[in-house]
Structures are given as structure tokens and as C-alpha cells.
Write a structure and sequence with these properties.
single chain; 318 residues; alpha/beta; Quinone Oxidoreductase, Chain A, domain 1; Rossmann fold; 7-stranded mixed β-sheet; 6-stranded parallel β-sheet; 9 helices; globular; binds NADP nicotinamide-adenine-dinucleotide phosphate
Length: 318
């Protein structure tokens, strides 16, 4: 089969298409013919060796959607020809930028018939992150106000929809060119993230009970300032050892909770994937696909996902 792989950590040009052996399922595994693979900033961090979590030779791609071609012993919930999607590959096991992939049951869920393969692949990682971070960890519920930083991003544009589906009212930040689209996705208020009076504008929209933050180092004090009493903050990126409150007294006074969330470290993705599948099947969450790439264009997709500004997701269709 064809797979796009890296044999050493490095820049996008380490990615090359190779012919490699098609995987066979072991106990508790399924093999999926890939129709679409999602592209995430995480894939580029793994490829560069920033985390040293994905030992080469490695096929990148956490997210996948496709059709089951074979199942291993002990698999009863999936059968040949099932439409499935999933996430969490490209770290311990080979990723989805290939014609076939082997996934264990923790990585996979059924894909509703009315959700396309491209949508499934675009949704998996960001949907799981949004659901698990905001609803499971931070307890987002109907009537809450949620603040989503970067509401046009891969995570952000799905987090807005997940928060809305949970019954929350949503304030999002985004560049002005995306405000109309982020509003159409369900945000009640959309604010330019670069405005000088951002804290006042967020507070006027209503103090958030839950905050989804992908730039926590920059926003930690802003979050503290605008958060409601007892707010839950989900930090998914930008966390480094310098992270500190300049006014920890205010954070304590508001009894804020900061959740450091790392989706790749979840022990299983399947329950969250099933919730995301239900939301997608109901039409409550629908990812925006900005562009698709061929299997020989994965290096370009890796460049674009970190260099370009766009609303939504990039997808590879092998
Ligand atoms: N911990 C986890 O489990 C987890 C899971 C998923 C993702 N992540 C991480 O979270 C980050 C975001 O992922 P993604 O897939 O959403 O990336 P993305 O698609 O590149 O989105 C990033 C978004 O941030 C916006 N942005 C840029 N500067 C900003 C600022 N100062 N304030 C607010 N927003 C700003 C961008 O808008 P413009 O283009 O308009 O500037 C863009 O919409 C990445 O670092 C990723 O690795 C972590």
C-alpha cells in the first residue's frame, strides 16, 4: 500500500510516499481503508520531534475515516464494510496518511451515514478535544457561558458548536474576517482577539463559566480577570514551565480551576468519539473543510496547517 512517512524527525520535506506492507489486524484491532485523514498541528509537532513521542519510521495522521476491511480476533462491535472514524494514531502506532491503517478499539467509532468521510476525519481529534475538555473535564452545561479563544481554528470552530449543543451561550474570539462565519456556527458574541479592550468586551458579553484556551501563557491573566466565580479553564496549548498568574490572589478568590488537557494522553478515545458522532449525526456539529490534499501533498498540508490562516480543517484524501 502507499503511505506518506518520515524516516527521521525534521521539516515537512522529510515526508515521502513509500510502498509498504498493508497492515493485518491483531486481537482487538480493525483495519480500515482510509477515505480521509485529518491534519492537525499536533502531526507537525510529532514529525519535527518536538515531543519525541512518534519514533520514525512513522506515518503521520492522528485522525481517520474510512471503511473496515478486516477485524481481528475478539472484535464484535465492528465488521467488514462498517463506516468508521477515529483518532489518536501516528504516535504509538502508524498514522492515517496511508491507504490503510490498523487501529485498536480505543481509537475508533461508527460514523453516521449522513456524515461524510472528510467530515469524520476533520472532526475526530478536535471533536474529542472539545467534548472531553469542555464537557467532561470542565463540566460545561446548559445555561453556562463559554468563552472559546480562537473560534475560527480547527479546535475553536468545533468547540463553538459543541458548547452551543451543550446549551451554553458562547463568546468566541477570532480575526475580523471570520466573525460572520463564527456567528453562523453558533457563537452569540464574536470579538477580535487583538482588540485592546478585549477583557472589557468579554466581560460585557457575560463572565464565562468555562474557557477553552489554546494560548494559555498569553491569556492566563485575561482569563482570571474575565472569569465568573468558580470558572473552569481548559488549557490545551501554550503551556510551558513559565506559566504563572500575575494575580494568583484573584484566581484563588474566584476559585478558578485550571485543567491542563492533552488529548493524546487519553486512555481511550472511543466514548468521546461516540458522543461526537451523535452530535454530527444530529447535525449539531459540522466541521468546515477548508481544503483537501492528495497523499503526495502531506508535506504541503503540514506547512499550511501551521503557516496559514483559515477557518476549519485541512484533510488528506489518499
Ligand atoms: N491539548 C490538546 O489536547 C490539544 C488538542 C488539539 C489541539 N491542540 C493544540 O491547540 C492549538 C490550536 O489547535 P488548532 O487545531 O485549533 O489550530 P489552528 O487550526 O491553527 O487554529 C489556531 C487558531 O488560533 C487563532 N489565533 C491566532 N492568534 C490568536 C490569538 N492571539 N488569540 C486567539 N486566537 C488566535 C488563529 O486565528 P487566525 O488564523 O485568524 O490568526 C486560528 O483560528 C495547537 O497548538 C494544537 O496543537 C491541543
Amino acid at each position: 500500500m502507499r503511505a506518506n512517512r518520515y524516516r527521521e524527525y525534521g521539516e515537512p520535506n522529510v515526508l515521502q510516499v513509500e510502498d509498504i506492507e498493508q497492515p493485518e489486524p491483531d486481537r482487538g484491532e480493525v483495519v480500515v481503508a482510509i477515505e480521509a485523514a485529518g491534519v492537525n498541528p499536533l502531526d507537525t509537532k510529532l514529525r519535527s520531534g518536538a515531543y519525541e513521542w512518534a519514533t520514525p519510521p512513522m506515518t503521520p495522521g492522528a485522525d481517520f475515516a474510512g471503511v473496515v476491511t478486516s477485524v481481528g480476533p475478539g472484535v464484535t462491535d465492528f465488521a467488514e464494510d462498517d463506516r468508521v472514524f477515529g483518532t489518536g494514531l501516528g504516535i504509538g502506532r502508524q498514522g492515517s496518511c496511508a491507504e490503510y491503517v490498523c487501529a485498536s478499539l480505543e481509537h475508533v467509532a461508527q460514523l453516521p451515514d449522513n456524515v461524510s468521510f472528510e467530515e469524520g476525519a476533520a472532526l475526530a481529534l478536535v471533536g474529542v478535544t472539545s467534548w472531553e475538555g469542555m464537557v467532561e473535564k470542565a463540566g460545561l452545561k446548559a445555561g453556562d457561558r463559554c468563552l472559546v479563544h480562537g473560534g475560527s481554528g480547527g479546535v475553536g470552530h468545533v468547540a463553538v458548536q459543541v458548547a452551543k449543543a451543550a446549551g451554553a451561550s458562547v463568546t468566541a474570539t477570532a480575526s475580523p474576517q471570520y466573525h460572520d462565519q463564527v456567528e453562523k456556527l453558533g457563537a452569540d458574541t464574536v470579538l477580535d482577539y487583538s482588540r485592546d479592550d478585549l477583557a472589557d468586551a468579554i466581560a460585557s458579553a457575560g463572565s464565562p463559566d468555562v474557557i477553552m484556551d489554546h494560548r494559555i501563557n498569553e491569556n492566563i491573566d485575561l482569563n482570571t480577570q474575565v472569569a465568573a466565580q468558580g470558572a473552569q479553564i481548559v488549557a490545551i496549548s501554550g503551556t510551558d514551565i513559565e506559566l504563572s498568574y500575575s494575580n494568583s490572589g484573584m484566581a484563588r478568590g474566584k476559585m478558578q480551576t485550571l485543567h491542563h488537557f492533552a488529548m493524546p494522553q487519553m486512555s481511550t478515545f472511543a466514548p468521546a468519539l461516540e458522543r461526537v458522532a451523535t452530535l454530527a449525526g444530529n447535525g449539531q456539529v459540522s466541521p468546515v473543510i477548508e481544503r483537501t490534499y492528495g497523499l503526495d501533498e502531506v508535506a504541503q498540508a503540514h506547512e499550511d496547517v501551521v503557516e496559514e490562516s483559515f477557518l476549519g480543517k485541512l484533510v488528506v484524501t489518499p
